[in-house]
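Supplementary Note 3. Input sequence used for the single-chain structure prediction.
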Amino acid sequence: MFLPTTPDELKKLKWDALDVILVTGDTYIDSPFIGVSVIGHVLVHAGFRVGIIAQPDPDTPADISRLGEPRLFWGITGGCMDSMVANYTATKKKRKSDDLTAGGRNHRRPDRAVVVYANLIRRYFKNTTPLVLGGVEASLRRIAHYDYWSDSIRRSILFDARADALVYGMAEKAILELARTLRDGRRINDIRGICYIAPVPPPDHTELPSYEDVVAEKTLFNRMFHLFYRNNDPLTARGLFQKHGPRFLVQNPPQPHLTSGEFDEIYALDFARDVHPYYGAQGRVNALETIKFSITSHRGCYGECNFCSIGVHEGRTVISRSEQSIMDEARKLTGFSDFKGYIPDIGGATANMYGMECRKKQQHGVCKSKRCLYPQVCDSLHADHSRQIHLLRNLQRIPGVKKVFVASGIRHDLLLSDKKHCAEYMRELVKSHTSGQLKVAPEHTVPDVLTLMSKPQAVALLNFKRLFEKSNESSGKKQYLTYYFIAAHPGCTEEDMHRLKSFAGRELKTTPRQVQIFTPLPSTYSSVMYYTGTDPFTGKKIFVEKKNDNKQKQKNILTGGQNR
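The predicted structure, written as discrete structure tokens, is reproduced below.
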């Protein structure tokens, strides 16, 4: 079921007004892979009237005004990606294409979309209902943060957008509580999982170094980020506040994680799994090809790679759907007229984290003194791939399903730590769920760089490669590993890239093609390294390549390409 985006749809529904209007920087794809669609359906399921305005023209009132004014609040998101990441390459060149815009041309998403859309609403709706920010752009910019594109420390996005609240993380629970609280005319300040601006901070919250202080002193920026990062788990986090001028950003502790049953309920909602016709008339949306018949099996990641934002946004605890829920979704897919029998991907941020999590973490929260996978896989995790093996085999047996692929990346050190099911899982992938190539993301092979990334050392990659090749041989397959690498990560020099190239040729027998230049994403440890020029865990100075030509050169060393 599509959520309404035009006045005619409101008339057909006999809705005189909406409770919530969601504004997004992506075109409107009604899919469980699209955050704004999930939030919209969750609210509708709870009895609220919700509409969506996608990629409104910021220069006229035509788009933003067409559904009127909501009774409760405006929900604003930049889309599935931070708008600056969507609009610019790692070397700050404007991207020409956009897979989440109809027609594929990057011409509908403004820079800093959350701020632009908030200002657009304020321009045409004076004294309107609250503006609530959400999605990855807002979530990762909720405190003072390093912004790569302006090379500066920016304030919390709440101040720049002049919004009333921000829901961080995946936010289904927070947005429901917020909607009910506003409907009942109550104060929102005690809701978990939100940020807001206050004249005085709550007495039970922990103070972060102020915006002014972290701008002036990099060591304080580092201290601020440690405090922020360590207070994102629902079981252990304290509320935070940060002074910005005369006012305070307040971050309440996170909402509890969804239970498996609550997660299942979301994926049972009636998604159309298509582009809304209003936007589909504007051209093809490339992203739909990847997500239309794919299935999410779990959420979150305990890998905690320093360059990745998933842990901060989705959480460091993995929540898995039940096998029955996933099977029901697969059966539903077989009923679509254009389903050809192929499920392009079953997975999450990392495919092989389905169905496993540390019980200690689930009961007491994340450990403050160590990580789940780095520098080695923690014994308390009890890596066990049997649930995913069982799931994959049962999905293949559904009438109408010809093939189920695992296209999400594999965490190779996690697989190798499962001594009981390691070989069986690899055989299952190679035999039935790989389309010629299996993705693995070592990111680098030089020890010092891997340490700064919080990635496993190269010996694990070589052991994984041998296991893959053995499974290929025993299955009679001729398939390949696709390696993903990063150039110009903090601490990485040109010499390190030459060492990586030598390793790839000598040990991996390949010239890598899947190489990206490091982008300092807001609210990641690697962005702290990039800004401060130090290792945030030791305080030692590290080399940081900041010249774009030299970043490109690092990439070209590995790929054999030329500067462009």
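The longest strand covers residues 480-487. The mean pLDDT is 97.
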